[in-house]
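pasting input
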Amino acid sequence: MRINCPYCGPRGNEEFAYLGDATVRRPDPAAEDAAAQFYEYVYLRDNPAGSHRELWYHGGGCRSWLVVTRNIRTHEISDVAFADAGDKP
Amino acid sequence: MKYSAFALLREAFRGHRGWTPAWRKAEPKPHYDVVIIGGGGHGLATAFYLATEHGITNVAVLEKGYIGSGNAGRNTTIIRSNYLLPGNEPFYEWSMKLWEGLEQNLNYNAMVSQRGVLNLYHSDAQRDAFARRGNAMRLHGVDAELLHRDGVRRMVPFLDYDNARFPIHGGLLQRRGGTARHDAVVWGYARGADTRGVDIIENCEVTGLSIVNGRVTGVDTTRGTIRAKKVAMAVAGNTSRVAALAGLRLPIESHVLQAFVSEGIKPAIDCVVTFGAGHFYISQSDKGGLVFGGDIDGYNSYAWRGNLPIVEDVLEEGMAIWPGLGRIRMLRFWGGLMDMSMDGSPIIDRTPVDGLYLNAGWCYGGFKATPASGWCFAHLVARDEPYPVAAALRLDRFATGALIDERGAGAQPNLH
Amino acid sequence: MSGTHRLQSGGLIDRGKPLSFSFDCESHAGFAGDTLASALVANGVKLVGRSFKYHRPRGIFTAGSEEPNALVELRGGVRREPNTRATVTELYDGLIAASQNRWPSLRHDIGAVNDRLSRFLVAGFYYKTFMWPAKFWELLYEPLIRRAAGLGRAAGAEDPDIYEKAFAHCDVLVIGAGPAGLMATLAAGRTGARVILADEDFRLGGRLLAERCEIGGRPAVDWVAEIEAELAAMPDVRIMRRTAVTGVYDHGQYSAIERVNDHVATPPEHEPRQRSWKIVAKRAVLAAGAHERAIAFGNNDRPGVMLAGAARTYVNRFAAAPGRRLAVFTNNDDGPRTAADAREAGIEVAAVIDSRTGARVTRVRGRHGVRLIDVADADGRTSTIECDALAVSGGWNPAVHLTCHLGGKPVWNDEIAAFVPGALPPGMTVAGAAAGALTLARCLGGGMTAGVTAAAACGFAIAAITQPRADDEGAAVTAMWHVKDSRGKAFVDLQNDVTTKDVALATQEGFGSVEHLKRYTTLGMATDQGKTANVLGLAILAQASARAIPQVGTTTYRPPYVPVSFGAMAGHHRGRDFRPTRLPPSHAWATEQGAVFVEAGAWLRAQYYPRAGEADWLKTVNREVAATRAHVGVCDVSTLGKIEIEGANAGVFLDRVYANTFSTLPVGKARYGLMLREDGFVMDDGTASRLAPERFFMTTTTAQAVRVMQHLEFCHQVLWPALDVQMVSVSEQWAQFSIAGPRSRDVLAKLVDADLGDAAFPHLGCREVTACGVAARLFRLSFSGELAYELAVPARHGDATIRAIMAAGAEFGITPYGTEALGVMRIEKGHVAGNEINGQLTARDLGLGRMMSTKKDFVGRVMAQRPALLDPERPALVGFKPVDGARRLRAGAHFLKIGAGATAENDEGYMTSVAYSPMVKSWIGLGVLRRGPERIGERVRAYDPVRNGDVEVEVTSPIFVDPEGARLHG
């Protein structure tokens, strides 16, 4: 696979480390049902046979965490973005 | 028809006209006591043991392709029971015991061959970790031997002992480990189940689960609706997709694992050897091909194929322990879909839906588990309680923390 | 003249360069430009191998990489290569080849008895027998089967040749240099695109080299030469001969193997034998041609039976006559063409049996070579024809393989009675015969269009090019798969000895799915991957099961396209270069000291420093420990992960990634930190030091350095991007030395320009200093439990610094110590390390539960509270001493109550680390024991059956030395 890192350009997937589903959000640890929420966050995955937003780390390059949108049936990548893009000015 | 040397002789003299299909091409009936989704080794073994151990024969096994088309037909055929943790070890040892009598039980030669599984270690810390595992096995009454370098050298003299980046210090040997002919396991269980009345329905994909008041009542398939008192899922690789039909989210990701075979060569290696400073395992089939593999590709995939970095990695690791492989050619490699669970261990349990049972999360080790998985799943489905050796393989362990994490890798499937 | 069957003239061989070679110890002659197969043909050698199961005599069947029969052991000794296809082996002077899978000789092979027993050895026979008695499988049956199986013999020793890997990037990759590939390359090359043309042959031209045909009114080989010259002059076109593209991967990656020096006896010095390429291409044109297929009829495997296209190759390209009297069996116009080419070359043509007229060959006679063929015509009249070679053409199968590597399924085409590419990998187009275009004109036109289109897709403007004139006659194939009234075995898969009867039996037994057929009969699983067999097999399966061929479908085409050596894929990653070796800054110095080194992950670290006269490693380690505890020792700890963390929120950030609190840490102080995974288990430990209000320096364990860095970036970029914090790994930038022992301050005082008094620089202090004239950092940290410091200098000064430390410490008796002594001292102090932080234990298990802050959020906080993690029955960390002080402890032992049986139910935990303590004067251990901290003083068994160990031990505190920590201070 080749991932088009927005900082480094297209690179082989051997430069990246994979983490998994990018859609799960770390819950509020103070929530009343924090234990249940954390169980879902840490363990449960949709694992869909289609479009998948997922986290990759460009450890062999710019050290960015990226959100890659990839069809996991075909491996076709439709989008790559910085994971923290939404929160940076 | 019973298989034997005599039957073969008889048929040889009459042009082999007497052989009948190993299993019927059954048409779905409207109702079954148990519908098993998944005609792989685990599903077929479950059907076989439902029939033989529990007398439940009004059973259908639904397979979306041909039987054995998933991981049962694309693995590296290793069988072993060299696990560390008490949640796993008795289960895999029960599997080994079932392997040991399988051919006679099935009347089918699945070529179960106990030529030994040798895990190499390359450091003092790894030796001690292997000792911990070997001792755990011994406490479970399972054979395990810790070999020093010389002992390893006597067994497999052709490995690299003198020039390795990670020198071989020794190995953990389970002599009762070995290999089995994967396709024959599928066919043997299919034939055995079929003979006892189970319907094996190929090219029948489940498209929906009927659930009424929290209880499963049947399945929708590409060959019509089938009612069932109980539905048992054994669809490793596709578990999340089938479970989603019942609205379940699971602690599972689908990953691709590649496996490899070389051109056939004259006998070169007798046992199974694994490399401890990486992830590589190799054995030689009775046909002469070296069968080997390594790590999963490491990303979610339903594509039944992998990519080049792991291919290179696996062949590098092969050369690292066995430099004589240089001029041997890899003939073919392929990918299978792994149900990677969040702690690296399987799940055999009920689900929140009454009458719906789950057999999943086999990671890349499901083949060796086939007999015990079928045995324990059949017991669970028939009696609604776990068979003792599989009692730890619960779905709620992720919530309670009673994990079975052999590698200590945590909640990240691609690290297991 | 070399060879009895060498034609007087013609061919693309260099008659001025005679070569000699041997096959099965018999010497022969050939010419440069020959393959081993063509040279054997030219020498009249018909029998070249034995089949897998029945050991049937076999001859050369094809002229390419699809060869199922002519497999030899090439070269000898440590360079022996089993299963090498003679058809793609370029002849070189002195080539040595031997036949395989036969004993005692190729002509007289005992294994051929299997052919006599074949009625018992039908498809799947082994599944039905060898079951009684059960014990005999491993003892008798399987060893016999294994001995009989396999083909050639591996060399059995290390491969002396080298291999390498290379990368290439291009706009357009053209795969195959036949008419379509050459036109595609020309069309794309003229646009200025970067083009790579790869072909597995050593000569460009593909089928054009093997056919008598014209392009633009001139012989095709002249046209090839002209195109080759034009391509060679293009700076952005790279021609890769002897390079087989073997696999297609996601997003335009292709793997290829270049056989750099397989055409010489041994590679020149420093040159690789083969090179493995990773090619990244924006577009690819697959012009891989087609494979001719056989027809199943009686004894269609006899030496001398050959595919018609291969016969033309031997005649036209290699000037080698497959026989003196050739018969042709065909279902298409390639048959007459073969006969014409043979006659042109002066070979007698005995007959053309054209199935389109209803004629067929029912049997071949002649065990070691064709002598006679039995023929029947449409009316059933039979005759016998004398001939010594039979060319067979059953039509052509486009080489669709690479189109399927990403999951594409080929589709059936009735016109050519073959599968053609279906859905293609993104960026790939197919041209020429691979696309099912089986005329020369269509190959040229298709190639041109594909080349133009591919270059245009990469943004290159179309350049002038015209399609040269060529023949557009198709072969008019009428499918003919199996001669039903055959006598004798009719083979489908030659190498694996799968016959039409096996296919029928498999169908009868219910193995009618094409995948089941393959698995049950082994059809298509031989070294040729069924290139000549698969389509024939499934056509016969379709007939046997009354289905149409498209309904039957194909098995999956898997990479690699042709078999690939381990060596090529491993490249230089073998032996000591399997993985990079990381060397700490003191490595050269340690080597001078005679240190013994040990692998620690990627690092090579000094394990201990033996001195003359020390009997064993234990003596050395004891000395190092004793000297450090009594005086002073030094150890390179540069392998620790080191991370610089800066920003206004750096303290808050550390609070969230560590279980304990760091935001309150004063500047100039260091603190031990415990890091959890989000699932609540311990991930790593280390220290963080506050160098400035917004600047921290973190250390991690050596093993987890990479993972922790990744984790911190995750926590920042994914979990808390709003925090103002940046981090960078500086593991490589700092050399770091631990100087430990009562005299450590005295040593450092000579090196560092700072007040090291306890008041100015207390335990857990940190500051920036100048050491040996270099800006350095000093930490008062102790892993050994002694008064100790860690001195960090820029890595390039590491070597000088260790020497300076040793010089400064000489008067105090400074002793270098390695990882063993380091381990002994940390076990004596009960500090956990990698053996305890094994991913399966919690902070509470390790006695560190109180480090988990209750006042803040941190990674792992919530999940660490799960009931099973709080279970008081969990094994927890304690120390152990043998009751008999002379006994040795071993890590990995399990704990049992005294008197309890050795069963899993009684298993109470395990030993994680052990060491011989010169302070305690016995072996000591750390381990986790059920309710361990409540059982101090109790005795248990440390049970270690895999090493015959069973030691009674006393449960102790995990801290064996200086439990009050007095040595740390003052």
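fyi Chain B touches chain C through 118 residues (CB under 8 Å).
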